[in-house]
Amino acid sequence: MPEFDALTVGDVVAERTFELSRDTLVRYAGASGDFNPIHYRDDVATSVGLPGVIAHGMLTMGLAVQPVVDWAGDPSRVADYQVRFTRPVVVDPADGAAVQVSAKVGQLDAEARVARIDLTVTYDGATVLGKAQVRVTLA
Predict the structure, then answer these.
(1) Hey, CA dihedral for 85, 18, 58, 24, is it positive or negative?
(2) Are 85 and 129 in contact (CB under 8 A)?
(3) Is the pTM of this model over 0.85?
(4) Could you tell me the end-to-end alpha-carbon distance of the chain, in angstroms, rounded to an integer?
(5) 32-37, long-range: CB within 8 Å, 24+ apart, which pairs?
(6) Mean pLDDT by 10-residue block, N- to C-terminus, for the chain (139 residues)?
(7) Residue 95: how many other CB atoms lie within 10 Å
(8) C-alpha to C-alpha distance for 79 and 117, rounded to whole angstroms
(9) C-alpha Rg value of the chain to the nearest Å
(10) What is the full DSSP assignment across 49-99?
(11) Distance between CA 43 and CA 60 in Å, rounded?
């Protein structure tokens, strides 16, 4: 478990890249029950104005928090997690997509022993989750 007193605002606590493929999307659709065709059919995705098949927003959100959960050592330490979806992750049929996550200490509440971890989540050089923040209890 990370030591609260050893943390400083600005510390990078985790970084990871997640490789997504169309197979990833199919597996996630089966697990989540979200079979919206924008997640597996280019013709449907483009017909609604998307650049192509996109990853499920909740898949992206779930992947983004995982490095923080791993760092915290226990998922029950995540007290709150919020994001804004700002841009879709387009998953190319051949090349897939790489989603980069960087987790940095944004704020420390010494009284509550809670660290706010700010996530930077990018795909193809652009932010895909805005105001992505995780509150982690480190009592």
Answers:
(1) positive
(2) yes
(3) yes
(4) 10
(5) 32/56, 32/58, 32/59, 34/58
(6) 96 98 98 97 98 98 98 97 98 98 98 98 97 96
(7) 9
(8) 11
(9) 16
(10) T-SS-B--HHHHHHHHHHHHHHHHS-GGGEEEEEEEE-S--B-BTTTBEEE
(11) 22
**98 in Cβ contact with 123 (< 8 Å):** yes
Contact criterion met (CB below 8 Å) for 40 and 26? yes
Which two tokens mark 129?
């989750």
CA distance linking residue 64 with residue 67, whole number of Å: 7
Q: One-letter amino acid identity for 118?
A: D
- Find the helix or strand (DSSP H, E) in which 105 lies: strand 97-109
At 110, the amino acid letter reads A
CA distances to 4, 53, 67, 71 from 100, in Å: 25, 19, 11, 16
CATH numbers and ranges of domains, the chain: 4-19+56-137 (3.10.129.10)
